[in-house]
Write a structure and sequence with these properties.
Layout (H helix, E strand, L loop, with lengths): L3 H22 L6 E11 L4 E2 L2 E11 L2 E2 L3 E10 L2 E2 L3 E10 L2 E2 L3 E10 L4 E2 L3 E10 L4 E2 L3 E10 L2 E2 L3 E5 L1 E4 L2 E2 L3 E5 L25 E4 L4 E2 L3 E5 L4 E2 L4 E2 L3 E5 L22 H25 L1 H13 L1 H32 L4 H43 L8 H15 L4 H26 L9 H6 L6
Parallel strand pairs: 1-3, 2-4, 3-5, 4-6, 5-7, 6-8, 7-9, 8-10, 9-11, 10-12, 11-13, 12-14, 13-15, 13-16, 14-17, 15-18, 16-19, 17-20, 18-21, 19-22, 20-23, 21-24
Length: about 450
């Protein structure tokens, strides 16, 4: 049985994916066949001469689809052939067969196995991309994700935004890569779900092996210069730019720097310092602009953690539900009002932005400030009784505690997730109170809100 969370996510992405197909594919003379269920299999002796939309937990194409294929599932495998375009949304996407034209894939992991062929361009946003030896992409590869291992044949250009890239195959055109300077491999990243294939272990940065060949220029920016085998063949110019704010290349694992520091410690400290400065500056501006409101929300978060957690989860559900509704309405309008795809999708995207922009902004900025203020008030009350009358000292103390907590591996990530939900919940409860309060009533004064903040017992 499909889990509810998976079904919710699949429905959302399906709406968006169908809208994209409608926009990019234009009017099609082919009919559309819808396939669904727990598992969809197009058998090896089956030929479908129409466009196909398939949604299932597992989708496998062993036969031939002569039109476009829009596939949405947990695992999508192409063993046969899709004659036209492929648009796939999945946790794991595996291509062992052929796609006649373009492929657009969004997935946690994408694998082009030996013998796989994409006739034209591949556009993919994925955590991990791997192209195997004897695989072939006939056009350009546009990649955005965490890591990419490219061993196969790429006929034209590569444009990539990533943390780790390894080139070990043929690229006929130019390579333009932007590496954002991380120093962690994928094994140090916590994934909420695991793909069904093994992921390659790549070192951060750009690595070019001796088997690689690049037919054009290599233009890349990264935290440090590429690990380039002298046997690699690059027929154009090589251009390197150090990424803004990047740290030098970390020493090999197990090495110790000359001053006895732990490798990568400088970069880690810089990251924590940036987090401290960001929360401190934004929090100070918020306290100057709305001290009473900020203190009230911090009090709600600290004194009502279970209620805030519940309201935070509810806020997430409402935001996702609203996004699904907008996507479904857009799809219905697309099929009902032919010829107006651009305006309908534009309107839908504006609604999505209107829903999610405030939500993401609130989730990213507000919770750390509220948690720091509430925790700092409590800590200062314990250490220095009588010093909690003002907000400055408690807030700075709380920010230090927050940054220290975030620095703990695994625990810091879990704490951040909990704080985000608590902060959203406190904001949701305030909105509830505002909606339930008559307009003529004034909100509580700042002094009352400050007095409600946690103090030492």
């Amino acid at each position: 049985m499909t889990r509810p969370a998976h079904a919710l996510r699949h429905t959302t992405v399906a709406a968006v994916a169908i809208a994209i197909v409608a926009l990019t594919a234009g009017e099609s003379a082919r009919a559309v066949i819808y396939l669904g269920g727990e598992e969809v299999v197009i058998a090896a002796d089956e030929i479908i001469d129409d466009d196909v939309i398939a949604t299932a937990g597992s989708i496998r194409v062993d036969g031939i689809v002569e039109g476009d294929l829009l596939a949405l599932g947990k695992e999508i495998t192409i063993n046969g052939r899709v004659e036209s375009d492929l648009l796939a949304i999945a946790e794991t996407a595996i291509i062992r067969g052929a796609v006649g034209d373009d492929a657009r894939i969004g997935a946690l992991a994408v694998l082009l196995a030996q013998g796989a062929e994409i006739g034209d361009d591949l556009f993919t946003a994925t955590f991990s991309l791997e192209t195997s030896d004897q695989s072939r992409i006939g056009g350009t590869l546009l990649f955005a994700g965490y890591q990419a291992l490219l061993v196969g044949h790429l006929q034209e250009h590569l444009a990539a935004w990533s943390n780790a890239i390894e080139l070990a195959g043929f690229i006929g055109g130019e390579v333009r890569a932007r590496l954002h300077g991380g120093q962690r491999s994928h094994s140090s990243v916590i994934l909420l779900t695991q793909p069904s294939i093994d992921l390659p272990e790549l070192a951060p940065g750009l690595r070019i092996t001796g088997e690689a060949e690049i037919g054009g220029d290599l233009d890349y920016s990264a935290a440090f210069e590429a690990d380039m085998d002298p046997r690699a063949r690059i027929h154009g110019a090589v251009s390197f730019a150090r990424a803004w704010g990047a740290a030098p290349r970390p020493p090999p694992t197990g090495d110790v720097e000359g001053d006895g520091a732990v490798p990568g410690a400088g970069s880690s400290l810089a990251s924590h310092a940036q987090r401290f400065g960001r929360v401190l500056i934004l929090g100070t501006l918020l306290l100057l602009a709305a001290p009473g409101w900020t203190a009230r929300l911090a009090s709600t978060l600290w004194h009502q953690p279970m209620g805030s957690l519940g309201w935070g989860l509810g806020a997430v559900v409402v935001a996702v539900g609203a996004s699904i509704a907008v996507g479904l309405v857009s799809v219905i309008l697309l099929f009902g009002l032919r010829g107006s795809a651009a305006s309908i999708i534009g309107f839908g995207l504006l609604l999505e932005i209107a829903i999610f922009a405030p939500f993401v902004l609130a989730a990213a900025v507000l919770p750390p400030i509220l948690a720091s203020l509430g925790a700092g008030r409590w800590l200062v009350g314990k250490l220095r009784p009588g010093s909690t009358g003002r907000l400055a000292l408690p807030f700075v103390t709380g920010v230090v505690a927050y940054v220290a907590l975030r620095a703990i591996p695994v625990v810091g990530v879990l704490a951040w997730m909990a704080i985000c939900l608590l902060g959203l919940g406190a904001l949701a409860q305030w909105l509830r109170d505002v909606m339930a309060t008559p307009l003529q009533e004034d909100p509580p004064p700042a002094q009352e809100a400050e007095a409600a903040l946690p103090r030492a017992a």
